[in-house]
Amino acid sequence: MKLKVLWILWVFIPAISADTITCNAGAASVPVFNPSSVSEAVGDYTLDCTGGTPVLPPNPIPEINVTAFMNVSILNTDGWVLSDGVNMTPGILGASNDVEFVGVPFNPPGAGTVVFTVENIFVNPSAEAPGFQFMELAEVFSTMSFGITNSEQLVAENAVPEPFSLVFVGLGLGAMLLARKHG
To answer: Could you tell me the pTM of the whole model?
Structure first.
């Protein structure tokens, strides 16, 4: 009986796990913004996906929908793109803080990898305080089973002013005033 249970587990567990697609989120770069700037592009957000069962021709390639959420309002540039290196899907602004990519072709990679990149999201750094962290999160909507690890990523941050620069400016002005007084 034990051998029969092990055989069933060995046969069916790979089939079940092969249908699950796992994506690891990341950020290609993390730019540091001047907090007085009114328009800057955050770093590209990436999803490295593996798993699932590849679809073979002549079957149609499945489609997924991806939504990228920011923790701030997104500037309406109409230039948002989701790319997998082959296909580029334009995005549409949903709510003020999300871009939706609808009908994205996705053939599950099985043992391979498909890397999606969300590009061209612009924000207004001057609307946030120095040191503010711009975070992005993606969700995948599909009839296939998706899991995303580390879905929330730091994609940019506002610079923090150097504390010593104001001291040196103050010392310089003080020295100028002192020189005038004694000169």
So the answer is: 0.78
